[in-house]
Each structure stands twice: as structure tokens, then as C-alpha cells.
Amino acid sequence: MAIDVFSQTSTTLTSGAALQLGADITTPGVYQLMLDLTNMASGDSLTVTIYGSVIGGGAFRLMDSTTFIGAQSIPVAALPIVFPFEGQVFIQQTAGTLREYDWSITRLDA
Predict the structure, then answer these.
(1) What are the boundaries of each domain within the chain?
(2) What's the Cα-to-Cα distance from 75 to each of 72, 103, 105, rounded to whole Å?
(3) Distance CA 59, CA 15 (A)
(4) Mind listing the pLDDT tens digit for each residue in 46-78?
(5) What DSSP letter does each residue of 68-98 carry, written as one string?
(6) pTM of this structure
């Protein structure tokens, strides 16, 4: 039996625009976004936006949006995501100093 392993990891420097984390996710499954928020400081605001399709090959629609404001007392955000079909994850720094964020998206049900 083949095991479908999916994991993307990188560091993203914010620019003020919405930036996609990794490639489009094309395999249905349960995923975990891990986002290191250690670099956030007072006055910073970072929004994570998740898009997915509700049918195979369908248009991407907003599924969830979470905003983190200021220095974080819990330095790592762990957001579970269920993609029944395809999906995309974006971050956008909307206030404060532009910063680098380490992140990973891993399929949990592989």
C-alpha cells in the first residue's frame, strides 16, 4: 500500500500583500498548518486565510480567516484544516513591521 506523504515547509517574508504558503493542495485530507509567531511584536497584525473548493475542480472559496494581533504568548499557531478537495493557505501582515515567519503544512491522515 502506497503512503501519500504531503509536507511543505519554508520561511516567508511578509510584504503587506497576501502571500500563498506553498503550492496549491490538490490531495483531499486533513492538514495541520504550523506557523511560528515568535517574531510578532506589539503593533503587528497577521491574518491567515484558508481557501478550498467544495467540489473537485471547483472555484476556491473562503473557508476560514484568523487574525493574530501583537506579540503572541503562545508562539506557535497550530491550525487544523480539512480540505475535501483542493486548498490554498495565505498569510498577510496588515500592520506593524514586516517580518519572517517559519511555517509548515503537513497532511495528517496520510
Answers:
(1) 7-107
(2) 6, 12, 17
(3) 26
(4) 999 999 999 999 999 999 999 999 999 999 999
(5) EESS-SS-EEEEEEEESS-EEEEEEEEESS-
(6) 0.91
User: Helix (H, G, I), strand (E, B), or coil: what is residue 61?
Assistant: strand
C-alpha grid cell, residue 10: 519554508
Give the integer Cα–Cα distance in Å for 49 and 89.
6
Calpha distance 28→69 (Å, rounded): 31
3-state helix, strand, coil in the chain (%, to 5): 0, 55, 45
Angle 24-68-48 from CA coordinates, rounded to 5°: 10
pLDDT digits (tens, 9 = 90+) for 16-43: 999 999 999 999 999 999 999 999 999 9
What is the CATH code for 7-107? 2.60.120.510
Direct distance between the N- and C-terminal alpha carbons of the chain, in angstroms, rounded to an integer: 11
Residue 94 carries which side chain, given as an amino acid letter?
Answer: T
